[in-house]
Predict the 3D structure of the following.
Amino acid sequence: MRLGMADLPLHDRGDFEDADRGFIAKLSPAVIKTADGRVIWDNDSYDFLHGDCPETAHPSLWRQAQLCARQGLYEVTDGVYQVRGLDLSNMTLVEGDTGVIVIDPLISTECAAAALKLYRAHRGERPVTGVIYTHSHAAHFGGVRGVTRGGVPILAPAGFMEHALSDGVCVGPALIRRAVYMYGTALPRSTEGQIGCGLGMTFSTGTLSIIPPTADISRTGQEETVDGVRMVFQFASDAPAEMTFLIPGRRALCLAESATRNQRDLLPLRGAPVRDARAWARCLNETISLFAGRADVAFAAHHWPTWGGGDITRFLAQQRDMYAYLHDQTLRLLNKGLTAAEIAEAVQLPPALERAWHTHGYHGSVSHNVKAIYQRYLGWFDGNPAHLWEHPPKESAIRYVECLGGGSAVVAFARRYMTENDLRFAAQLLNHAVFADEGNKEARDLLAEVYTRLGHGAENATWRNFYLMGALELADGIVTATADLACRDLYAALTVEKIFDSLAIRVDGPRAWHERLAIDWHLTDLGERHRTTLSNGALIQEVNPPDETADLTLRLTKAQLLGLLSGNGVEGVACEGDTSALRRLVAVLDRPMPDFAIVTA
């Protein structure tokens, strides 16, 4: 039997006490702008969370939002400080012999600079003597140029650069479009709208930057000393590139994203490769074995710390058990023939875990994490041949609506299910009605109402945001994305192979079916030779190709290559051969669509 709110320890204010512990000062006002005055962070917009939970929010999510909205400078332990609530993630600052080491410098340079300024206002003008990226998501590195211009040690897990760059190169436009829904960026910040994302409040929209690491952490047990601070690392196998570490001299444990105050998402709703729940659980078990008895406080890149050896071990063990349980129960049931959707309905956490607030699905959820585990092992196909070759959504919707007697009949059925409070099925019916006829205003308005009600009842913040963004799109049309993963630093850090990968996925295959050409690219500053060959609609690249004549040979620098692909032309580039080959290649390149429809066909 699933626990209700009445079964949860609402009287326990321990999390609120921990979230406020060590508080020094706030940023006031908590509004951060770019140099030209554009607001890229406004934590004051969440002041409405000081009130009681309204009917338009799940009480558990409201509680989480109240905790995440706290902002300011906090002392974690002697010589360790955090700035929270000035971006999606926390910035942690560890004082060394001559300055301060910055851990996870937020997403935007403007937010990182503001966080460092707040720290210095209360701890003195210590120079930044090192930087640590604990993880390869932008929330852990994007603001680095707001705290340093380089020239200091920068530590990161092995594989960091590859994974940090991969999101934006291949599927960046789709990720950004879906992130608008996941984080509810276009929603008003109000009791009816966006109240955070579970992991924090939202992401900042300032200047993204990156400085490549100067040293990799590639194995568990590796030790490094920066500015007199000794650190012992654990290379985490639960993520693309992540590491945790102990600061023995401070008895402080950095958990990065391995364990936070909510259930994380094994597969973010914005999209990503599925994370391995079993490896995650084993990594947390290793963390307990390595560090739990050697730390008096554990802090992470999100949320608030945990103090006390016993509480740290309990917290880590519950997080470990949660991911292990989800993994093992999903595999148990899929081996009994249940599909992903069926397993998601069947699995619930044990009561002892459900009573722990930090296992609740504010960012991930049992439902979509179970489906992610299923996908990791068996893929999208559930084995039912009826699902092997279905019509795409719009074509299916037209046929479903015809079978049900037309759009008006579908709306009537949906109203009945809404009356019975079966909002899930009402949404399915109305989705068919809208996909079959986007001009059916009655269906659109009713579906927006259903999405709004589902959003207001969701404990999971990312679900709430998706539902409410869906309602907004139905009512007002597509909202343009304001975030962009692209930045000069990221593109400059790409390998030449990655640059050509990004070009290959833009080739419009059918338009290029009958085009054949080969271009040699001599990167004079790198001493590299690459060949791209357009063949049967695919752009094939070779490094150090054989000495065969290409249609066109270009001699240029990497910067010129990036400029050429950005539309700057071939000025200053040495060309040999048929220059029309370049024009023919450009002619078959497609442009991504950053604002595609999601809840309409």
About this structure: The chain has three domains: 5-359, 387-476, 494-587.
